[in-house]
Amino acid sequence: MNKRVLIVVGFCLIILLAWRWFFFKPSSRLSVIESTIQPESQSNNVVGLSPNSTVDQDSVGSVGPTESNPPEMEGITNTYIFSSNHVVTRVVIPNPEFKIFGTPKFESLAKTQFESLTINSKYLVDTNLYELKEVFNDFPAALNSQLIYSGVYQAAITTCTLREVRQFVFNTRYQTMRDLEEANTISNAAERESKIQLIKALSDAQLKLYESMRQETLEDGRKNLTKLYGELPRPIFQRLLGIELRNTMGRLPYP
Amino acid sequence: MKRLIFLAATCGFFLLVLKFRQIVLKTSSFGIKSIVSASTNHLANIETVNSNIRSRRIETLGFLAGTGPMLISEESESGVITNVYQFPSGKLITEVVLPNPRTPLLGSVDYEILAEQDFIKSASVETNLIEIKEIFEDFPLARKSQYLYSGIREAYVLRAKLYRLQDSELLLTAQQGVVEKEIWSVSDPVERELKSKKVYNRIHEESLKNWLEMADSQNRFKQRMERLYGEFPKPIFQRLMSIEISGEPGELIDP
Questions:
Q1: By a Cβ cutoff of 8 Å, what residues of chain A touch chain B?
Q2: Segment-wise mean pLDDT, segments of 10 residues, chain A, 255 residues
Q3: Which residues of B touch A244 (CB under 8 A)?
Q4: How many angstroms separate the first and last alpha carbons of chain A?
């Protein structure tokens, strides 16, 4: 019975990860090139998820090859280990434009993108974009760097990704609620209990994965902005995160 | 010149049409607390209901005020809130929220004492309350005032409310599948079309109401903070908007 549950949990996690990698694409990251879940024990409980090792975590933007990747592949490898000894490996490749993050070229592209969504926009302008810029105007290091629009672009990516993650969390909770309702209609008590356990374990693992994604997004955003300006005071970062954009800023037209 | 007169006449005609389109439908009442429904033929009638209006806020969505959805929210000295929602269809909803008589008014010593007790009780579970306190401590007027915890409590309530409203919005999206199923269960194509229109209008209206409520609750919070501290800087507000709240605050009730 335990083995069956373990296989089903593993299978569901693979589907979840595949779905997450296909549909969750933060603008600063391109795609996941490898995902594995390796069951290493017979335990049927997926209780905890914690990063086992993090390779090159701070290199979104100007990433270098990681130890585990072939030299031509640039990316971030995050390995998570469940308390049941399941291992989840995520490799994420940044969008190509982030190779030039922090350069005048990137700044120029970000500025053009900003203007196309504000002064040159044919549609309703999201005034919160101006609010983001205003925060950077209150930050002397950003003003002196001449890289304000790169910061606006990075901040927009961070807040939009956080909003997406929040949506995933909500969807998971909603789906779990519906699945549990359905499971409760099973007449066989043992089968019902087993199904409920499975749904809860899967939901728990999903939520933990999303929490790790949320933390990574915050950390990436903070590190990239610090890289741009040399420092990032906490109040400034809080102000940036407090401004919600209705739409994403879109990809920069980098070849 | 003739063209100008023709244009002015056309505009006048459209304005008249818009005015007549504001057919008042039956009002409904809902909300967390005791709600009284008031039937009204015109927005101006609301003013006669509350002669001691303390504050008034108007929220609009869209390009021009008066053409899109609108919320007029009025709060009396006693804390009674009257919300009038006006939708593009011409539908009007009046919502009256009566405060709990055992909850002291904001700005009183009793409120501050209860807010401090609530902070001490809740901070161990809702750890981000400590971050909210740190932000208020960076605001000299709040720090020096006798009402530090009142502000923290208000921010806590606002953040929780915004998350609740966001969840309602996400729920509307998540229920899309259920709604479609409901529509397609109708066999007659004409009836199905009617049902589809009705259902989607309801969803659209609920969504607009959420958006208006979100904007209004933020402005209400700012108004209350200004009344409490004399002023409320934008950077402090922006920082507070980045704080995540997971639970629902309990009521502040005088023992």
A1: 124, 131, 135, 138, 166-167, 170-171, 174, 235, 238-244
A2: 65 61 43 34 36 37 36 66 67 82 94 90 84 96 95 95 93 94 94 93 88 92 96 97 88 78
A3: 241
A4: 53
Q: Do A239 and B238 touch (CB under 8 A)?
A: yes
Contacts of B212 (CB under 8 A, 6+ apart): B59, B61, B69, B70, B71, B85
Query: ipTM surpassing 0.85, yes or no?
Result: no
**DSSP state, residue B26:** P
Of the candidates A28, A25, A69, A54, the residue with the CA atom closest to the CA atom of residue A153: A28
| Residue located via tokens 């374990």 | A201
What are the C-alpha distances in Å from A149 to residues A87, A91, A105, A253, B213? 39, 28, 11, 15, 32
| Residue in the block written with tokens 């006449």 | B9
Q: Could you tell me the two tokens for B189?
A: 């194509």
> Which of B62-66, B91-95, B148-152, B236-240 shows the lowest per-residue confidence on average (mean pLDDT)?
B62-66
**A174, B242: Cβ pair inside 8 Å?**
no
- Residues of chain B found within 8 Å of residue A239, distances taken between Cβ atoms: 235, 238-239, 242
pTM equals 0.74
